Amino acid sequence: MILYIAEKPSLARAIADVLPKPHKKHDGYIELGNGDCVSWCLGHLLEQADPADYNPDFKPWRFEHLPIIPAEWKLKPRSQTRSQLAVLRKLIRQSKQLVHAGDPDREGQLLVDEVINYLGASETKKRTAQRLLISDLNPKAVGAALGNLKSNTEFIPLSVSALARSRADWIYGINLTRAYSIQGRKAGYNGVLSVGRVQTPLLGLVVRRDKEIENFVSKPFYEVQAVVETESGERFNARWKPSENCQPYQDEEGRVLNRKLAENVIARIKGQPAELVKLTQKRKKENAPLPFNLSALQIEAAKRYGMSAKAVLDTCQSLYERHKLLTYPRSDCRYLPEEHHRQAAEVISAITTNQQTLTAFLPQIDSTRRSSAWNDKKVSAHHAIIPTTRQANVASLSQQESQLYDLVSRYYLAQFMAPYEYDDTRVDLTIAGGQFIATAHQTLHSGWKLLLSSSEAKHSLLPVLAEGQPLQCVDGLLEEKNTQPPKYFTDATLLAAMTGISRYVADPEVRKVLKETDGLGTEATRAGIIELLFTRGFFVREGKTIRSTTVGRALIDSLPESATTPDMTALWESELSRISQQETSYSSFMQPLTQRLHGLIAQSAEVVIPDTLKALSPAPKKRRTSRTRSGSAAKKPAAKQTTTGKKRTPVRRKKSA
User: Fold this and answer.
1) Separation in Å, CA 400 to CA 69, 136, 305, 491
2) Do 203 and 397 meet the contact criterion of CB atoms below 8 Å apart?
3) φ and ψ at residue 372, rounded to 5 degrees
4) Of 94, 165, 168, 493, whose CB is crowded by the most CB atoms within 10 A?
């Protein structure tokens, strides 16, 4: 018997749908017509053991126990999914061949591998296990993936990388959270001061931005525009470019802070001839932006629709699993396999059938066009998020589902449209010995920008000019502006900061390394990390902005700088990537971390948490009781709580896949 182990029931059903029928549905698995079986995990069936599972003495949080570093690591079943683990135990024993069908990423690889190992599969079964990589739940795509199985042993480095990440996060988070929470209790704060290798640097970014805004002092600065006239009376403006002699009167961004200097420039240029020193005109082409990965989609959806990162992920997951209209959403890749181009016409047909409004662009769409998105060298376990070939009634989609499907569809269709073409013109002038610059941008062919209207460029025009022609400066304009503080983070800008984290690192060597990594967190975890910081009470929303709370700031102020900046965690991601590429080992990653942890714990002992947090302690949680409100012992199971707050009577559920 071949046993297919999927990550979720939806994927298991998609696999079973293209395998021999008739099917028999059992608790926790589907039996196929040929006797093979398809079963599933429910996300992670196993989790890292708690400190108390290693030693009961570790249950109370005491400083003398730290750091807690397991000599031998343990996993334990999640209480709510024990029954599914039992199903898989029986099926693995009965099977002759295993097929790993976890999601096509680092965590998906570990999730199924750890179950196979935990349940005691034989070495032969583990060695001969195959890997099924699915990124599209439609039957045709699933069938193609089943015809392209790989050896699961090829993915061992990916699993080891995920294992190292899991254990390192446990060691770092458990120990530092306990250390700082214990210090917090000394100050009267009874909440958890949670520390994590990704969440804490992210909190640090927001705290530092908030403080920068609060401490910002606005300063006036001045810009000069020369009004230049041709012999035929046509006018245009040229911006003054201060010389090196003006540096003492400028800030670090080159803005002129001295009003008298600007007024003096205007007095000197008014009524003077202007010499056109150089005229540069370049015809340029701009190709369509690449299809989305998850972070790029989250950023764009936040800008266009105000959607949170979690809302985008959850909506995409629904479009992937339930509606089968999008490919695998937790992708970090913006490229497509070259052989996928053969499906282009079919995907385009599905998109325009599902969304009639997009048929208007069909005359500009050429399905034979091949943009730079198709590149095998830049595709690994998964590819960009694109629409599938499924034709469906999109009227049944929610507003957010409809918005994201439309957005992903447009970015896919844009790959088959002509480039955006435009002329860029720059005019260099000399007036009374000063340098002035005028620029213009003129669209020649809109191309793909017809489809992505929000990307349309603004037009600016100049009269027809030629080098050496006589010009006159007829006036000077003085613009007084004020320096502006940086803006508070929003969902879009915070996600952009996480993906482009190198911009926030001062060390040039570290910055260079970070440019080659995926940034802070991963595609699959970023939304959850942002939401976790809200749950912990470290973030709060004010309109569309994300702000740090008093508790969040106090934690950042108490921690060593290395724990609050992105350098360390992004370097972790770099090392984890190297493990997956077999360029370094598990032990070379873990050993320095465990050694450094002793110093971090010793450092935390010297920290004094401000006692002002005492008033901000969360209210104590009510203890659960098996008694009714009247105080009598409850004889029946408690009714489950629905999302609407109404009680629901427990019911027996039919067996289902």
Assistant:
1) 44, 20, 9, 16
2) no
3) -70, -5
4) 165
Angle, vertex CA 70, rays to CA 66 and CA 75, nearest 5: 125
pLDDT tens digits along 322-347: 999 999 999 989 999 998 999 999 99
Q: What is the rounded CA–CA span in Å between residue 180 and residue 201?
A: 16
CA distance 625 to 638: 11
Residue 455 confidence class, pLDDT cut points 50, 70, 90: very low
Integer-rounded Cα Rg, in Å, for the chain is: 30
The answer to whether the Cα torsion of 493, 498, 503, 507 is positive or negative is: positive
Scan for tokens 């683990």, then name that residue.
85
Model confidence at 10: pLDDT above 50: yes
Residue pair 405/434 in contact (Cβ under 8 Å)? The answer is no
636 sits in the region (left: phi over 0; alpha: psi -120 to 50; else beta) called: beta
- What is the C-alpha to C-alpha distance for residues 349 and 339, in angstroms, rounded to an integer? 18
Cα of first residue to Cα of last residue in the chain, in angstroms, is 19
Write the CA distances from 149 to 20, 123, 152, 485, integer angstroms.
Answer: 17, 20, 9, 54
Residues annotated as catalytic are: 328
Cα 327 from Cα 333, distance rounded (Å): 12
Give 237's contacts (C-beta < 8 A, 6+ positions apart): 225, 226, 227, 228, 438, 477
* Pairing mode of beta strands 220-230, 235-241: antiparallel
User: In this structure, what DSSP letter does residue 527 have?
Assistant: H
Across all residues in the chain, what is the average pLDDT? 90
Predicted confidence (pLDDT) per residue in 232-282, tens digit: 999 999 999 999 999 999 998 899 999 999 999 999 999 999 999 999 999
User: Which of 336-340, 400-404, 456-460, 634-638 ranks highest by mean pLDDT?
Assistant: 400-404
**Three-state SS for 2?**
strand
CB 538 within 8 A of CB 529: no
DSSP β-bridge partners for residue 3: 37, 98
User: Do 106 and 522 form a contact (C-beta atoms < 8 A)?
Assistant: yes
Backbone dihedral angles phi then psi of residue 333, each to the nearest 5 degrees: -115, 145
**Under the phi-then-psi rule, with left for phi > 0, alpha for psi from -120 to 50, and beta for the rest, what region is 582?**
left
Q: Give the CB-side neighbour count of residue 323, counting CA atoms within 13 A.
A: 25
Nearest residue to 240 (alpha-carbon basis) of 254, 259, 261, 224 = 224
309 in helix, strand or coil? helix
